């Protein structure tokens, strides 16, 4: 409740409706209105039933003439105070009222601060998700009927040096690490970042001599605090940077260094019980979660007392699916994930990583495990069982720790997790007043965690920090966050962090920042007669194209994304054609794989990973030099992520080779134009 001096008398305003909780807010509102003692002395300001944008302005315009309400007084304040300092009688609980005031002031001709325009690159980012259907293809590109026509089209459009589409000479690369920083001499600065001497030494021992530009930018942005509802909290951040530019460390490092700050009296190595479950990392695949765990593990000193480098990482727990399993007592547990964490970590891990579905399950287990006395006081209260009776007391204790400690959620590959789609300019992403037909699990998870955090906080707003990272970021991502977090604008939902050329004015600069500059592109067009005589006609010509393409290249570790062919068929084909080192996703994290094995022959030794496109996001196999795409990906964003599985070390070149049917030539040209790259042919026409 806030008190506002207004025209000589004190009015009390009840601000009861954080925008993200309409249903609960309505209940609360009705309860309050029914208490006449409050009603008589208080003007009830009902704010922001839905996301406050266009609609909330509209509804308040209607009510502005009724007097008494907050809207009318805010309009008065706007007129009386002919400057921008007129927000001080708002306690900040309502984003809606600020928006309304801004709108009315602007309408009344008062000079108000301009809304920041979203950057051009963020708006262009949406276009990368647009499906490359026939309607998207430039009308000058007709579908070729023959191999010769396709080759002619590709050579004319992809190999000629059109200065308007070619990237200019780069002044700096997003992949280059910052070097020769004089501040490096200071023992607590790692390339200018104040990580402290312990972390500086750990980073350098792990081979990270200097931070990459995006790591520098993200560090300060993630740690920076903003004031909201008179509470200080860390701001939400969206990191946009090309594949292989070091986003993983960019979002991890701020948390790692603060989790272990000596000033916070937390131990340097293991998380203390009080920091258990502070950060949740959401990844599209379990493999990616393990990869993140490995990055953290590589930064921690080897504990020789516990079996050397094989010691499990106590800072990060990766959730793995497990059925309700028998615990030590032989009974089935309804808390398999909590048991998994308890059994592997003491104290609880500060970071929990997993897929959205597993994290949703963990949240549910936490909810059910918190003892009923506590649950009676919190929103998790439900009629179903769980908690209390017959459960090992360590489980409710762990659940409570994880429930109260959660401070930040990181979404790696956020656009994929939230299933970002291009914005339809004619309608808002989630139409007002309508329920959303389907949302992704990550969207559901984030919504629920934001809601939980609102209930935990004393002032009703969420204190949860959200960090998103991806190589392809469009405006629709921040609009989704705006909706989930119930913020009134994209800038308030999250700030953008990028360290590359995408902020530049020239379109070719912006395009050049979408892919690493050490990534090369090539194509191989399959001939109509490319099916081998001994193969059955069901074998895709793309597979024959793949085999022929390897004949033209040095044998080097590769990833094949089989597209329409499918993983099993592609693997079978390669194995039947003598390739002896064909691997799958399960081999990615395998310690038995020798990454430095000499590759002298495609068929005998060269490792070839065949991986489904959906699972390829974020994979970091540094030794991979070729990416083979069977068929043209459905949109430019997919191409960028798949091609980006190579060229992940800034000093080493990688090549993405698209094997395509002649009829797909216009699609490849369209992708290349959107991403601003040129490609060369592996064949001679
Ligand atoms: N400061 C650094 N110095 C040297 N190498 C680094 C540094 N930071 C990250 N790397 C290395 O760069 C590679 C790519 O890093 P990372 O996987 O974080 O990229 P990414 O930006 O997340 O890529 P993607 O978008 O494909 O997920 C990794 O092998 C990592 O070890």
From TrEMBL:
Stretches with biased composition (Polar residues): 372-381
Domain called Helicase ATP-binding: residue spans: 228-491
SMART domains cross-referenced by the UniProt entry: DEXDc
One GO molecular-function entry: ATP binding
Family: Belongs to the DEAD box helicase family.
UniProt comment concerning the protein's domains: The Q motif is unique to and characteristic of the DEAD box family of RNA helicases and controls ATP binding and hydrolysis.
Protein name as it appears in the record: ATP-dependent RNA helicase
Organism: Nitzschia inconspicua
């Amino acid at each position: 409740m806030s008190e506002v001096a207004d025209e000589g008398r004190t009015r009390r305003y009840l601000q009861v409706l954080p925008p993200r909780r309409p249903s609960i807010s309505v209940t609360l509102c009705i309860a309050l209105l029914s208490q006449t003692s409050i009603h008589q002395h208080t003007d009830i300001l009902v704010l922001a039933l839905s996301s406050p944008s266009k609609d909330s302005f509209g509804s308040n315009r209607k009510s502005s003439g009724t007097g008494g309400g907050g809207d009318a007084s805010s309009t008065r304040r706007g007129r009386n105070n002919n400057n921008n300092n007129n927000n001080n009688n708002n306690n900040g609980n309502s984003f809606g009222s600020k928006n309304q005031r801004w709108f009315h002031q602007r309408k009344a001709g008062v000079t108000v601060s301009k809304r920041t325009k979203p950057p051009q690159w963020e708006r262009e980012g949406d276009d990368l998700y647009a499906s490359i259907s026939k309607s998207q293809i430039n009308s000058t590109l007709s579908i070729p009927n023959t191999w010769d026509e396709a080759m002619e089209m590709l050579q004319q459009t992809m190999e000629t040096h059109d200065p308007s589409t070619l990237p200019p000479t780069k002044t700096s690369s997003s992949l280059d690490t910052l070097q020769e920083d004089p501040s490096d001499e200071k023992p607590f600065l790692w390339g200018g970042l104040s990580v402290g001497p312990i972390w500086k030494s750990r980073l350098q021992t792990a081979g990270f001599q200097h931070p990459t530009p995006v790591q520098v930018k993200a560090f300060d942005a993630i740690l920076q605090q903003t004031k909201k509802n008179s509470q200080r909290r860390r701001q939400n951040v969206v990191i946009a940077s090309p594949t292989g530019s070091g986003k993983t460390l960019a979002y991890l490092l701020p948390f790692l260094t603060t989790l272990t700050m000596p000033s916070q009296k937390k131990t340097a190595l293991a998380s203390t019980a009080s920091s258990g479950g502070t950060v949740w990392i959401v990844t599209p695949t379990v493999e990616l979660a393990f990869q993140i765990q490995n990055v953290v593990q590589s930064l921690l000193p080897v504990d020789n007392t516990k079996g050397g480098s094989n010691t499990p990482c106590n800072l990060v727990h990766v959730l793995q699916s497990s059925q309700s399993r028998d615990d030590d007592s032989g009974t089935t547990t309804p808390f398999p994930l909590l048991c998994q964490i308890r059994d592997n970590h003491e104290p609880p891990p500060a970071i929990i990583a997993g897929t959205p579905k597993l994290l949703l399950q963990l949240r549910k287990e936490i909810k059910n495990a918190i003892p009923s006395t506590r649950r009676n006081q919190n929103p998790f209260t439900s009629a179903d069982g769980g908690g209390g009776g017959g459960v090992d007391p360590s489980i409710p204790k762990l659940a409570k720790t994880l429930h109260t400690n959660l401070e930040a959620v990181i979404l790696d590959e956020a656009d994929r997790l939230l299933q970002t789609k291009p914005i339809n300019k004619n309608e808002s992403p989630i139409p007002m007043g309508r329920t959303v037909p389907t949302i992704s699990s990550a969207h559901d998870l984030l919504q629920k965690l934001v809601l939980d955090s609102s209930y935990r906080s004393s002032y009703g707003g969420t204190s949860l920090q959200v960090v998103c990272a991806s190589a392809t970021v469009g405006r629709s991502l921040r609009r989704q966050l705006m909706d989930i977090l119930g913020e009134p604008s994209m800038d308030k939902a999250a700030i953008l962090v990028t360290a590359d050329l995408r902020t530049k004015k020239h379109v070719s600069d912006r395009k050049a920042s979408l892919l690493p500059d050490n990534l090369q592109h090539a194509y191989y067009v399959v001939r109509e007669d490319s099916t081998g005589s001994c193969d059955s006609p069901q074998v895709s010509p793309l597979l024959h194209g793949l085999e022929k393409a390897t004949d033209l290249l040095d044998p080097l570790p590769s990833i094949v994304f089989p597209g329409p062919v499918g993983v099993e068929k592609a693997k079978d084909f390669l194995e039947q054609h003598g390739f002896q080192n064909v691997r799958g996703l399960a081999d990615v994290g395998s310690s038995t794989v020798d990454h430095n094995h000499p590759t002298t022959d495609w068929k005998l030794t060269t490792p070839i990973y065949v991986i489904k496109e959906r699972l390829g996001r974020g994979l970091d196999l540094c030794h991979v030099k070729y990416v083979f795409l069977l068929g043209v990906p459905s949109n430019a964003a997919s191409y960028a992520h798949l091609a980006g599985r190579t060229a992940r070390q800034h000093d080493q070149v990688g090549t993405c080779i698209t094997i395509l049917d002649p009829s797909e030539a216009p699609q490849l040209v369209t992708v290349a134009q959107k991403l601003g790259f040129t490609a060369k042919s592996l064949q001679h026409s």
